Amino acid sequence: MARPLLQRLGVREGLARRFLVACLAVGFLALITAIFAAAWSTKRSQDHGRWVTHTYEVELAVTKVTTAIERAETVRRGYLLTGQQVYLDSYRDVAATLSPALSRVMRLTDDNPRQRGNIVRLQAQVRDILAYRNQSITLMAAGRQQAAIDAFVAETGAARMKGVRATLAAMTAEEQRLLAIRDRELQSSVTIFYGILALTGVLLLLVAMATLATVLRYTRDLSASRDDLRDFADTLEELVEERTADLSRANEEIQRFAYIVSHDLRSPLVNVMGFTAELDTATVAITDLIDRAEATAPDIVTEDARLAAREDLPEAIRFIRTSTQKMDRLINAILKLSREGRRVISPEPVGMGAMVQTIDGSLKHLTEDRDATIAVEGTLPGIVTDRLAIEQIFSNLIENAVKYLQPGRPGRIVVRGEKTGSRIVYEIEDNGRGIAPSDHQRVFDLFRRSGHQDQPGEGIGLAHVRALAYRLGGVIDVRSELGKGATFRLTLPAVLTEAESKRSGEVS
After folding, report:
1. Which positions, given as ranges, span the membrane (predicted)?
2. Counting beta carbons within 10 angstroms of the beta carbon of residue 172, is it exposed (0 to 12), middle (13 to 18) or buried (19 or more)?
3. CA-wise closest residue to 157 among 69, 242, 220
4. How far apart are CA 382 and CA 395, in angstroms?
5. Which fold has domain 2-219?
6. Nearest to 375 by CA among 353, 400, 349, 403
7. Class of domain 344-507
8. Region for 284 from its dihedrals, namely left if φ exceeds 0, alpha if ψ lies in -120 to 50, beta otherwise
9. Residues of the chain with confidence (pLDDT) below 70
10. How many CA atoms does the CB half-sphere of 88 hold within 13 Å?
11. 92 beta partners
12. Domain spans, the chain
C-alpha cells in the first residue's frame, strides 16, 4: 500500500515541480524581454530627443545667419543713404557675427551630405554678397556717395538675397525632413515597445493562470494523498507492532537455536577431548612398549611401528587437541553472543573518562610491553547507556588497537568524543598497521579477520562490538589505510531510554 502511494506522490510532485519551474522560467524570460524592450525604447527616445535638439540648434543657427545677413544689408543701406559713421560701425559689428554663425551651421550639419552641399553654396553666395557690399562701402568711404548709390541700384542684390534665403530655407527644410523621419522611427519604436509589453502581459497572464491551475490541482492531489496517508498511518502502528513481534520471535528463535546448537556441540566435543586424553595416555604406554621391545628384541619392532608410536600418533593427537581447543573457543564465543543477546539492557549514567582510565590500567602490562600509550583528547562527554555493554565495546576496540600496532613504531591510541545534537560520537584512533579498504566491512563479520594473522583470536571481537552497538541504538564504522593506522567511529544516543533499549534488544 505504501509503495504505490509514495510512487504516485513522487510522480505528481515531480511533474508539478517541473511545470512550475518551467512557468517561472517563462515568466522571468518575459519580464527580462520587457525590461530589454523598455531599455531599447528608452534609448530610442533619448536618441530622438538628441536629434530634435540638434534640429532646433541647426534651425536656430540658420536663423542667426539669416538675421546677420538681413541686418547687415539694412545698416549698409542706411550708411549709403546717410553717410553716418554709426551705420558703418553697426554694419561692421553685424558682419563680424556672420562668420561665426556660418561656422556653427557648418559644424552642426557636417554629418549630413545634403547640408554640406547647402553650406558650400551658401558660403559662395555670402562671399559674393560681401564683395558687392564692400565695394559700395569703399566708394562711400572715398566720398563718392552717388557712385556708391548708383552701384547699389545697379547691383542685383535682390536676386542674391533670394538665393541666400532659398539656400537657408532648403537647409531648414532638410532638418524638418530629418525630424519627420525620426518622428516616424520613434513612433515605430514606441509601437513595437507597446506590442512587446502587451505580449509580455498576455504571456504573464497565461503563466499566472497555468501556475494557479497547477497549484490548485496539486493542492487537491495533496489533500487526497494526505487522506490516504492518514488512512495508512492508522494501520502503520499496528503493522510495526506486528512486524516487531515477528522479529522478536525470530530473534529469540535464533538465540535459542544458537544456545542449543552450542550446548549440543559441547557434549560430543567433551567426549572427543576426553578420548584424545586417553589416546595421549595410550600413546605414552605404546611408546614405552616400543622402547622396551627395541631394547630386548629389536628384530620384532618394524620401522612403521616405531614411526607410528613416536611421530604419527603424537602428531595426530596434537592436531586433534588443537582443533578441539579452537572449536571449544568458538562454541564459547557463540554462547557468549547468545547470552549477551538475552541480557536485559539497563541504561545508567556512565563517566567515559574514568572508564577509559580503568581500561588503560587493565591493559598496562600490554601497553608497556608494546611501547604504547593511551590518551584521552579533550573531555569525553558522558552518556546514559548500559555500562557493561559500553565497557565491552571500548575494551575490545582499545585492546585491538594495542594488539595490532605497527612493529618498530611507538604506539599511540587516542580516544576522543563530541556531542552532536541528541547523539554522541566517540572515536578510537591508533597509528597501527591499518586495515585495507576492501576489509572495512569484513572485519565486523563473525569469525572474519583481516591482515596478517599473528595475534590470537577467533574473529568475534568486532562482531560482538557491532552487535552491542546495535543493542545500544548506535552504529560503528571504520576509516583506515594500510600502514597508516585506523579510526573506529562509534555513534550512540546520548540518552538511551528504556523503550529504545527494549526495541533494540528485540531486533538485535
Report:
1. 20-40, 192-216
2. middle
3. 69
4. 17
5. Four Helix Bundle (Hemerythrin (Met), subunit A) (1.20.120)
6. 353
7. alpha beta
8. alpha
9. 1-16, 48, 151-160, 233-234, 236-238, 240-267, 269-271, 275, 301, 325-326, 328-343, 446-459, 498-508
10. 13
11. none
12. 2-219, 239-340, 344-507
Closest by CA to 320, choosing from 368, 375, 251, 272, is 272
Enter the C-alpha cell of residue 247: 522479529
> Residue 258's pLDDT is what?
57
445: left (phi over 0), alpha (psi -120 to 50) or beta: beta
Q: Which amino acid, 248?
A: S
User: In angstroms, rounded to a whole number, what is the distance separating the alpha carbons of residues 345 and 342?
Assistant: 9
Most distant CA pair in the chain, distance: 188
Q: Are 317 and 280 in contact (CB under 8 A)?
A: yes
Backbone Cα Rg of the chain: 56
| CB 55, CB 77: distance < 8 Å | no
CB 221 within 8 A of CB 4: no
Instruction: For residue 130, give the C-alpha cell.
Output: 560681401
Question: What is the C-alpha to C-alpha distance for residues 230 and 131, in angstroms, rounded to an integer?
Answer: 108
What are the start-end ranges of the E strands in 55-142? none
The closest alpha carbon to 43, from 201, 184, 193, belongs to: 193
**To which residue does cell 552532536 refer?**
420
Q: Distance between CA atoms of 254 and 252, rounded to whole angstroms?
A: 5
Strand residue runs (E) in 273-378 = 347-350, 372-376
C-alpha cell at 244: 516487531
DSSP state of 495: B
pLDDT, one tens digit per residue, over 263-302 is: 566 667 666 777 677 777 777 777 777 777 777 777 776 7
DSSP secondary structure, 389-409, as one string: HHHHHHHHHHHHHHHTPPTTS
Q: What's the pLDDT at 338? A: 60
Bridge partner list, 386: 347
What per-residue string of b and e applies to 186-204 under the rule 16 or more CB within 10 Å gives b? Answer: beebeeebeebeeebeebe
Residues near 320 by beta carbon (within 8 Å), at least 6 away in sequence: 272, 276, 279
Looking at residue 349, its pLDDT comes to: 93
- What is the C-alpha to C-alpha distance for residues 178 and 50, in angstroms, rounded to an integer? 13
Q: What is the mean pLDDT of the chain?
A: 76
Contact by Cβ (8 Å): 112, 119 = no
- Confirm if 394 and 424 have CB atoms less than 8 A apart: no
